[in-house]
Amino acid sequence: MSTSLIARDSSGAQSQSLLRVSVAAGMVVPAIVATVVTSPVPIDTRLEAALLCALCLVPSWAYLRESPSRRRPIPFLPIIGVLYALYFALPAALGSYNQHYRIVLSPAWDYDDAVFVALAGWVSLLVSMEMSGFLFPMSPAASRSNVPDQRLRNYGALLMLVGLVVDAVRRLFSIPIEIAGVLVFASSLGWFGSALLVMLNVRGRLSSSWRALTYAGVVGFFALAVATGSVATAAFYGTIIVVAAWIGRGRLSITWIAGILVGGVVIVSLRGVSDQYRKIVWFQEEGGGIAQRTQLFFQLLHQRVETDGVQGAVAQGFETTAGRSANLDLLADVIRRTPSEVPYWDGTTYLSLVGAFVPRFLWPDKPTKELGQAFGHRYGYVGVNDTGTAVNLPILVEFYLNFGLIGVVIGMAIVGLIYRLVERAVNTPGQDDILSLAGIVLMIPLTNIESDFSLGFGGLILNGAALWFVLRLMGRGTAPDVARDPTIPAHAMVIPVQQRSH
User: In angstroms, how far is CA 284 from the centroid of its own chain?
Assistant: First the structure.
């Protein structure tokens, strides 16, 4: 074994240990803080929230404890668990309250029911995934496609560049609503293409010119997201890039983990100046082109650092992020006002699912989805005459405002079943790596649990069909290898050596 390979294995083992320690700390520290913090949130509520934090991180702990050869290539449920903990558990466990910028609650009693409902929803999802695993057992990994590196590079570059152009067009110009949805999907194909190139790059399968193209494309997607004020989109794209590297190497090095932490801090810090940015670009219609807008965003962040220091800029970013993503506050407010003040919606929020599987260019008169506006007005989060502000409706809150606690339990069980079916299709141990990359693009919208059900799940079938078509096109004319042994990780398989292009 070469020295570089030994060093790489050692780095991988260290990063795995670091991740396991981090997850273990995340399971224990909230409970410790809950017992010692001084807060008007009752101690039993804080401890219940700490328990929910620990349960949310169980999938991450189980995933990291598994042998790389037997774990699913995409850490999908661990990602969902971390997000669920951040949205619905951690604030109460730390004794925080009234973080939402439009809601005022009584910390002494308004959070208790909300934490219980969130706990019931998460347990229902986990139980459903386990039970559905017996009904829909994991299929053996299919035979491995033998797509040459050159074809992967060409398809990756084509999809990435076309996706970049489409993304720039739809973000910078007014697009007819009939084709807007199609352009969004074309952008996601660009994400898939860049993920292909990132996977090849971390395996050392790209020449210097191809690496430069890959870096330029990745930076371009990030710049487009930042330039249009969509920090969340930058975070989603970053997740795809990280998972592509994870799939390509089977682990993350210490350098990658450090980069993820730095990137996360930068994204959170940008959230702290996002209101200023949107005021200049959206309302005053200033800022220039993509490069100028991206530069403006970071200039505003630089000014914040000069005024408040690095710590102050990061703290402001966390405060803004917490205020915009205080889904526990939103859930608590909906619970205390439904149905005594606001009647149950009795499932009407799911009517938009009827047309979710039909592209708008095939149904030009399809009703426009305005649930964010309707939700904001119904609960008084936006003014009567405000027709431009939409309030995110998380799927957990949506289940409750439609049917109460029973809606949460049944709804989250349905979500667990869908998760299991999607994982069975595109997230099986030992599956082809190209399928894994398509799988993460398909799964990313499902991680958006702070939006309503139809927004997260409505495009699943059409997107899945389109990605399947792209995969078939890429593999056309290539003979599959022998069936992959599920005990051997994808990245450890012997890959036919391709002539490196220069």
Answer: 31
In the chain, what is the straight-line distance between the N-terminal and C-terminal CA atoms, in Å? 28
With a cut of 80, say whether residue 306 has pLDDT above it.
yes
Contact 315, 262 (CB under 8 A): no
Distance CA 352, CA 370 (A): 9
DSSP 143: B
Round the CA-based radius of gyration of the chain to a whole number and report it: 23
Q: What is the count of structural domains for the chain? A: 1
Backbone angles phi, psi at 101, to 5 degrees: -75, -5
Please report how the helices 433-443 and 460-474 are oriented relative to each other, as an axis angle in degrees rounded to 10: 160
In a domain, 116, yes or no: yes
For 218, the token pair is 């990745």
Give the dihedral of Cα atoms 410, 413, 417, 422; nearest 10 deg: 110
For residue 276, tell me if it sits in a domain. Answer: yes
Contacts (Cβ under 8 Å, ≥6 apart) of 283: none
The residue range of the domain holding 82 is 13-138+150-485
Query: pLDDT tens, 87-118?
Result: 999 999 999 999 887 899 999 999 999 999 99
Would residue 462 count as lying in a domain? yes
- The chain-wide mean pLDDT, for the chain, equals 84
pLDDT of 462 higher than 60: yes
- 28 pLDDT more than 90: yes
Classify residue 134: in a domain, yes or no: yes
Alpha helices, DSSP H only, in 325-404? 327-337, 371-378, 395-403
The Cα 404–Cα 407 span in angstroms is 5
Check: CB of residue 170 under 8 Å from CB of residue 180.
yes
**483 beta partners:** 143
* Contact indicator for 26, 93 with CB cutoff of 8 Å: no
**In DSSP terms, which residues pair with 143 in a beta bridge?**
483
Question: pTM here?
Answer: 0.85
Report the pLDDT value the prediction gives residue 286, as an integer from 0 to 100: 73
Verify cis geometry, omega within 30 degrees of 0, for the bond prior to 339. yes
Task: Determine how many CB atoms are found less than 10 A away from the CB of residue 311.
Answer: 9
